[in-house]
Amino acid sequence: MTTLIAIAGLGIICLIAEIFNLRKAIVPVSIIGLLAILGLNITELNLVGSTYYNNMIVENNYSRIFSALFIVLTTFLVALSPEFHKNHKTKISDFVAIKLFLLAGAVAMVSFGNLAMFFLGIEILSISLYILAASEPKNVSSNEAGMKYFLMGSFASGVILFGIALIYGATGSFDVETIYNTVSGGNIPGWFFIGIVLLTIGLLFKIAAVPFHFWAPDVYEGSPALTTATMSTLAKVAAMAAFFKLMKGLNHEVPGTYVTIIIIVSALSMFVGNLMALKQSNVKRMLAFSGISHAGFMLMVFLSPPTTTGVLFYYAAAYGLAGIAAFAVVLSVCGNKGNEEIYNFNGLGKTHPLMAAVLTCSLLSMAGIPIFSGFFAKFFLFGEVLRAGQVAIVIIAVVNSIISVGYYFKLILAMYTKDSTEEKQAVPFAYSVVAVVAILLNIALGLYPDLVLGYL
Amino acid sequence: MDVLIILITLLIGAAATYFAGDKLASKVATFFSLAAFGLTLYISYLQSNGVEVGFTRPWIRVPNIQLSFLADGLSLTMVLLTTALAPIIILSTFKKVQNKAKSFYGLIMLMVFAMAGTFLSGDGLLYYIFWELSLIPIYFIALIWGGGEAEARKKDVVKFFIYTFAGSLFMLVAFVYLYQKTGSFLNYHFLRLHLNGTEQFWIFFAFFIAYAIKIPIIPFHTWQANVYQKAPTAGTMLLSGIMLKMAIYSIIRWQLPIAPAPAKEYMYPLIALCIAGVIYGSILALKQQDLKKLLAYSSLAHVGLIAAGVYTLTIDGLRGAVLQMVAHGFVVVGLFYAAEIIQRRYNTTEISEMGGIRVQTPRFTSMFMILVLASVALPSTFNFVGEFEVLYSLAQTNIWFAVLGGTTIILGAFYMLRMFQQVMLGEQNTKVFADVTFGEGFVFVLIIGVLLFFGLYPKPIVNFVSPVLENIILHINTSN
């Protein structure tokens, strides 16, 4: 609870700082504040779970450790902001404050005890993202992305709300625990399941899983690159964590038909995401499709919910950190080029060996090559799913891992085998620090998975 | 002191090489690879005197993964081969000016580290990590420092990466399945499992895909010749000298003991597949006009024979395979080095553009000749010992296998000597060919020394590996 209040407070401090003309202090203060909140959050780990406000907020290790991950990702995103928005210095307080409110939404999404709180969290996160997507008002594609995202997102929110209403109608409560007890008592009306299905559809929208993925590539491509980074790391991971918590909280067992749906959606997401990514020449679009396929991978956790909580967190952390590192490099390379085509990366291995190495490492992590945490994430996931007896989906996932190597290596090849056509430009300090720290955290997770797996 | 120190030395060596800068990189790499070789020798000495040099510590609690390195005669022999070839390979690059030298030598050291780790790992997942890790350096070495037209090279190297990566993912699935059964990835826990026939078949099959691509056994060989031709010579040496031995070692260490039943049941088709590779490789070698490609296909033939020896499941087959792995490692490095020397002077690998070198270079000619003869397994060379044992084991299984496998010697003699004739003999070439320098000659002398010494006195290696191999054979024969 303190975490949530502190984050919201920090966001307000950002806005107040602007009033008192302390613009220079905003980013350092936010980063220090976020790190302090992270420390606070980590000291609370392993404490007994507690509830606040009539069970509106439930704090336990699940919420704490995911909050910690969100805070780390947000810290990186905030650290990238001043350099990215250097042409709009006056607006920096808005950008940072919105990111902090977005974080508050994400934290609420993993610590809800009541469906109303869950919906509030998802809306805070989404509205912040709509604003960020359209945050370049003079850029047509940013406007388009914001509008598209808003329409699609609010539609999905509507579906979720309808689902919640049906569940309320069936059980007479918004409280997750009460719903759970009512469901396990048996004798529930059929529209409860319709409600669950609508909730699922809405959340599949949010995590951009096939067949609800069509908005993602356009929105990712049109939005400013930093917003794309936010969407594809923080927002996706938060939606996935909330999805998992919700489904685990509402159903005491996963029915067979639901498993079938998850398998189909997961397999489709992997195939469509990977096959489309193979054809892209724009890096942002490619990462969008790669994100769709990763959503497919993450969906596999639903096949064995009791044992995959830790796996989901590990996968989310590995994916999020690799994504941040990759986007930091993309920002530094394409920052003032106006587009994110692959040819911008030509010869990066020669001009900026460090940036090229970081991007290579993060792509290798996403592809699932050992010692990077992406490998262990896939490995733990496959292990648990195999144990649950789902061999077919694991084989599909393995095949998709092979396909994904194809497009990740396209970028690596461009960096190391082609010659740069442009003059060497200095990499902004903030970008290189974020890139290196994020990838080091990723590798550290790969070397010591016990670091985080012990808590769940 | 335990085997960990070898790996630490190599890893520190890789980092030190990179940070030493372009000028010092090659010297630092030589130093650390020699240090690793010295340490390996010392550890092997300790091990043969009965000192426990293995190393096991817990690493990841859930799932249960151990940082386990086992050191017996077999794995130490392979590490010896690795660390002995590493300084030779590094020395062979000395005369050639490398751009981005620190990355080049750093990657070589990293690759040697990963390969040594593969040979030493006693935990399945650790082994898999090292196995995959070795792929990354060689990918970059071939990609950045390779020769030939850039687009074509890129295609071949990526094909190689995806092939081997795809293969090893199947192996990973097999490991995960085994983990579900035992709750551990340790090799000796796997060996205690009693798997039924179907399970063994699928696990054997998953391992087989990974290894057949790496070795390569036909029909999984299509990546090989192009990559060998296009990679820089040091990369080709690493690939053919050490990396493909990882796969044969793995058959002996992991595949056969874990899933012996399919190995017995499908022994004939497996051997036939390997022998087919022998004949196929030899025939293609006959037709090659490119020196490096010719050597690549001849390597395909020799390695096919080694794999055939392993799948006979006899002590002679396994021992012959190990001996031949070491011998082939040295001879193939020597041959590629000779090709590199010619390429440096003539800027081509086309055989038709060579000829008449002998008159100008008596020393190089005689050294090259000895290597050629060793590669066709002339008695008194190391290769003869290994090849003979392998053929003997094939004859025990079925005499026709030995006859067909023996064609590698006949065909090998044919294409190798014809190559030698076209490259070295004939009218004096108009282009000047400087004789080998001291440094180049030194590398050849080292290789030839090893080949002749063990050719005449293979006992140390035989004694070192035999107990391990006998245990493995015993395990295969006693399990049902």
Description of the structure:
Chain A is an all-alpha fold and 456 residues long. Chain A has a domain of 193 residues. In chain A, 75% of the residues lie in helices and 1% in strands. Chain A is built from 19 helices and 2 strands. In chain A, helix 11 runs parallel beside helix 17. The two termini of chain A are 19 Å apart. The model of chain A has no long low-confidence stretch (mean pLDDT 88). Chain B is mostly helical and 480 residues long. Chain B has a domain of 171 residues. Chain B contains 20 helices and 2 strands. Chain B has a two-stranded antiparallel ribbon with strand order 1-2. In chain B, a hairpin with a 4-residue loop joins strand 1 and strand 2. The radius of gyration of chain B is 21 Å and the shape is globular. The interface between A and B is medium-sized, with 30 and 30 residues.
Structural class of chain B: mainly alpha
Strand order of the largest sheet of chain B: 1-2
**Oligomer type:** heterodimer
Separate helix tally of chain B: 20
pLDDT < 50 stretches of chain B: none
GO molecular function (chain A): NADH dehydrogenase (quinone) (non-electrogenic) activity; NADH dehydrogenase (ubiquinone) activity; quinone binding
EC number (chain A): 7.1.1.-
Family (chain A): Belongs to the complex I subunit 2 family.
Pfam families (chain A): Proton_antipo_M
Care to give the gist of this entry?
Chain B: InterPro entries: NADH_Q_OxRdtase_chainM/4, NADH_UbQ_OxRdtase, ND/Mrp_TM. The complex is a heterodimer of chains A (456) and B (480). Chain A has 456 residues and is mainly α.
Features:
heterodimer, A: 456 residues, mainly alpha, two-stranded antiparallel ribbon, 2 strands, B: 480 residues, globular, ubiquinone binding (chain B), transmembrane (chain B), NADH_Q_OxRdtase_chainM/4 (chain B), transmembrane helix (chain B)
Q: What is the topological layout?
A:
The complex is a heterodimer of chains A (456) and B (480).
Chain A: H1 2-19, H2 23-43, E1 50-52, E2 57-59, H3 61-84, H4 92-110, H5 115-133, H6 140-171, H7 176-184, H8 191-207, H9 215-222, H10 225-250, H11 256-279, H12 283-299, H13 309-334, H14 348-351, H15 353-367, H16 373-387, H17 391-417, H18 429-447, H19 450-453
Antiparallel strand pairs in A: 1-2
Chain B: H1 4-19, H2 21-48, E1 55-60, E2 65-69, H3 73-92, H4 101-120, H5 124-133, H6 135-145, H7 150-182, H8 187-192, H9 197-214, H10 224-230, H11 233-258, H12 260-265, H13 267-287, H14 291-311, H15 315-346, H16 362-375, H17 382-397, H18 399-424, H19 438-456, H20 459-478
Antiparallel strand pairs in B: 1-2
Helix pairs in contact in B: 1-2, 1-4, 2-3, 2-4, 3-4, 3-11, 3-15, 4-5, 4-6, 4-11, 5-7, 6-7, 7-9, 7-10, 9-11, 10-11, 10-14, 11-14, 11-15, 11-20, 13-14, 13-18, 14-15, 14-17, 14-18, 15-16, 15-17, 15-19, 15-20, 16-18, 16-19, 17-18, 17-19
